[in-house]
Amino acid sequence: MNITNLEMIQASMEVIGALFCLITLFILAVNKMTQKTKYLMVMFGFSMALFLFDACAYIFRGNTDWLSIIMTRVSNNGLFVLNICLTVTFVGYFYNALSLNGINISGIYAKISIFFFISAGACLIINCFTNWMFYFDGDNYYHRGTGWYIYTAFVSIGIMITVYATLLIRKKVARRLFTVLILYEFAPFIAIIVQIFIYGISITNIGITVCLTILLLFNIRQESEKKKMSGINDTKEKTMYVTIFMLILMVICMSASIISCVANIQKVAAENAEKDNRNIAHLVQSNIENTFLPYLTVTQMVASDNDMCEILKNTTRETAKDSEKQISDYLRSVKDEFGYQMVFLASDKSNAYYTYNGILKYLDVEKDSHDIWYKEFKESKRKYVINMDTDEANNGALTIFFNREIVDDDGNFLGVGGVGISVTKLQSLLRRYEKEYNLDINLINYNGLVQINSNRSHIEKEYLDNSYLSSVPEKKFVYKKMDGFYRMTYYMDSLDWYLVIDDYQMDKSSAHRIVLPCLAIFMVGLLVMGAAFTFISKKERVSSEKLMERIRISLTDELTGLYNRRAYAECVEKISDKQLHDNTVIIMMDVNGLKTVNDEIGHDAGDELLKGSAECMLSAFGKLGNVFRLGGDEFMAVLECSGKEAREAAAVLDEVTASWEGKEINEISISKGVVVGSEHPDMSLNEIEEFADKLMYEDKDAYYKRTGKKRR
User: pLDDT digit string (tens) for 609-625?
Assistant: First the structure.
């Protein structure tokens, strides 16, 4: 999708305007304003939609893909519909405002205005079938038709009727109300007149929104004054003033920033476009030449085989059949080794055309058009030539032939040898680059005839401009500015063809890569600020909950759900000496036989063993303290209880492990070492941990001795 610098700035302004309307709507909805303000909310909603449709019209025009074609038509029709909706809503606001101010006026003016607005809508409906009002050219650009002026006239007359009604009641309303009404009515009318003469930049929506904002501020001021006169001290209107003022200031500043940013990005993109495309062109050229290199090498091998040269040197038309098997066997061996579609030898002395299946034919350059290539090659005096032709040995398949001369030691011409490959191999390479870089790639001969193209129907049928090919130097690209694209041409001397690359992104920058990301970031920033302004307390609570969840996860063992080693380290740091020697119990535990289960049954069974052990530990010790998994099959419990309670809990652990059953294993055994801090007043925490570890290993030794199981 492409967009010019002017379109980019215009689209940026439109989206910024839509964001301004959206945030204004949000503020009005939160503050629950009066009935009159609700009309303004609807008008801000229509203005927001106008901005978005207008932005889409600028972004998608000039592009011919199906999405752009649909979006330009939807957005332009939407613009005209929304203009009618906005003016009708203003008429409703106008009469509501007069009613609230105790002013009566004939409804005939409203009916006449709406009649003209409906007439404008009828123009739009007619245009759906006739393109009478506006149409799109082949490049998907919008153009006005005769009906556009009639539509605009209907809308303008409808607005002017409301202006006339406003002038009638000018002495009955406050001067400020009269001023803002006239301002709103004249601003879009003036913008329409200007756009009749200045075509290409939309200013109507901006003018409408500016006047609509002034209308909103006046309404807030009027409501505030009424409450003040009634003795009501309400700060909501003041808050609205400050909020909208800050919003306008923020939008102006950020608008200037983003438009400046987009313009600079566009400038830098334009400066770097040629450099980038030169690099891409060299990449394509290098890969194409590297693709051809193996075929040229094999062709040289075929043409320089000494045995074949000797046979061709001594073979005549009469003896050609005698050497058929030897030559065809050699050609088949080359075909089988490299997998080429065709491998051939053509004898100049006998005119026999050998393939891997024997003699296909005898060349007749005078009568057979398929044999003209041989005559042209021989007369060219070139060592090798690449040409596009149909392969008679393979049902006329379109084939690239690599032809190389065969000469004897004295330089006498003996014939031609070479290989042929299907054109589809190179076509797939071209398609990949064309799709990746939005290019059109051709290989052409000196006459401009297309030799290779990703579209088969172009090959050997279409011609490109060859008037400048004589000026293309070797090993250098020639860059030409064409109508709507940039052409890069390179002479490939190894092929005697010209590589022609047409780039269709030189004059425009991608909207997806430049405009839309900038506007998306801008939109997210504004919406986040608005949401934070309104729901700060909720955000803080959610943030606090997320923080606690992260802390919980960081302190929890993923497999068992127990606390992990990090949580244990934090726990023991908080244990004072007094607490340690009064009511702290340290229990070191180790799951017996985990390695055996992992090795003999599998790691899923091992995980089940660890999870089951954790469940048993929590069942026994959960009410007295915390259980930690230190790693592998090592566990630790830190309890706050007496020694008696700790030993009773250890006995409970033995009971629950004895009765536990799982899906893959039916036995859990846990060795443990229980140390009661109050029973060892002279030990530090580290010493108690070491002592508990020692007792645990003694218990483990006793388990293996008692059960007779092999310890691993």
Answer: 888 989 999 989 988 88
